[in-house]
Design a protein that fits this description.
Length: about 350
């Protein structure tokens, strides 16, 4: 735990919403205890696992595995999930290191080559599951189909839909556009006509916010760019709105009359309220929080982990993958059918 002043208050906020949570706080006891003393209820629901070894934000994944394996706070948190001592590991640390350690220690689900960072994206129609948000760069058609099936499994549970709609993020809606891997994945999804997802085709970048699909699938490079662009736009809009309100007394007066509407807009655009990316495809639950988040934002990441564990989503996703009748294992057959 590298930032107790954010993590501890965040845990206290989440505990207020979910009274049954118990916490394993992994990190330097000398840094954790002073913050924990400020939150008596959290202290009563927490246990400290001490280590003074932390993964640096500048460490490469390979360096983190060599230096921090077995002793770092990041590794020990993940290992607690593997041992069944914790239901979910939540970290605001180095994303690459967290993914490398999670994959190395927890391993992936059967049929999944690479895990994905999966987020809940606010849209005009509600929310969408979006993956991959940056776990890995690139991916063949098999990988994209795997993401589609996992994302649909998650959406079916979170949104209570028997057949969630799925779209592939692309530079255009036409079937001839995009990289070969994306076009091939589209052909596979259409050919298989999987019973537990409804593939709607390609979705352009603006279609994410419109809520055109319950699940948006992208390889990690484009998915991460889409995420960062959306977060930056939200912050820019909030800043522009704040500046305009302060520009004149008429603007300030108008704000007073429309305060509730502005507050609702601010809440919908707040990136902290969409904090918490799930590492989907692992044999254990890991949630990645933004490194620069606030205590409230970290609380939302904890909430995401709580929901995943409380509703046993990992087991349900695994069951859904199996109910697909070996969909992931038969991708090659589908490729041959459409070739």
């Amino acid at each position: 735990m590298s930032a107790p002043p954010v993590v501890i208050p965040g845990a206290a906020i989440s505990l207020g919403r979910h009274r049954e949570i118990e916490f394993l706080l992994v990190g330097d006891r000398a840094k954790i205890e002073p913050e924990l003393d400020r939150h008596p209820e959290l202290k009563a629901a927490s246990k400290i696992i001490h280590t003074d070894v932390a993964v640096s934000g500048s460490d490469k994944p390979s360096q983190a595995l060599r230096r921090g394996r077995k002793t770092s706070s990041m590794w020990l948190a993940i290992d607690a999930v593997k041992k069944g001592e914790a239901d979910v590991a939540i970290s605001a640390g180095n994303t690459g290191a967290l993914m490398a350690m999670s994959r190395f220690n927890l391993r992936t689900l059967p049929g999944i080559d690479r895990p994905a960072i999966t987020g809940i994206w606010p849209t005009r129609r509600g929310e969408s599951v979006v993956l991959d948000l940056g776990a890995t760069i690139g991916g063949d058609a098999h990988h994209l189909v795997s993401l589609a099936v996992m994302g649909a499994a998650m959406a079916s549970v979170l949104f209570n839909k028997k057949r969630p709609t799925v779209g592939l993020l692309n530079i255009g809606a036409e079937e001839i556009k995009g990289h070969e891997e994306i076009r091939e994945a589209s052909e596979i999804l259409r050919a298989r006509n999987l019973p537990e997802l409804d593939y709607i085709g390609f979705v352009e970048g603006d279609g994410i916010g419109k809520g055109l699909a319950d699940v948006i699938v992208a390889e990690g490079f484009s998915g991460n760019i889409a995420l960062k662009a959306a977060e930056g736009t939200a912050r820019q809009m909030a800043e522009l709105l704040r500046n305009e309100i302060q520009r004149s007394w008429m603007s300030k007066l108008g704000y007073l009359f429309a305060r509730s509407a502005f507050q609702a807009l601010r809440d919908k655009m707040d990136p902290n309220k969409s904090n918490g990316g799930v590492f989907l495809g692992l044999k254990g639950l890991v949630v990645k929080s933004h490194g620069g988040t606030t205590a409230e934002g970290f609380a939302y990441a904890i909430d995401v982990g709580y929901e995943m564990a409380h509703y046993d989503l990992l087991n349900k996703i695994n069951q859904m993958l199996n109910r697909e009748g070996g969909a992931l294992n038969s991708v090659q057959a589908a490729q041959e059918a459409v070739s």
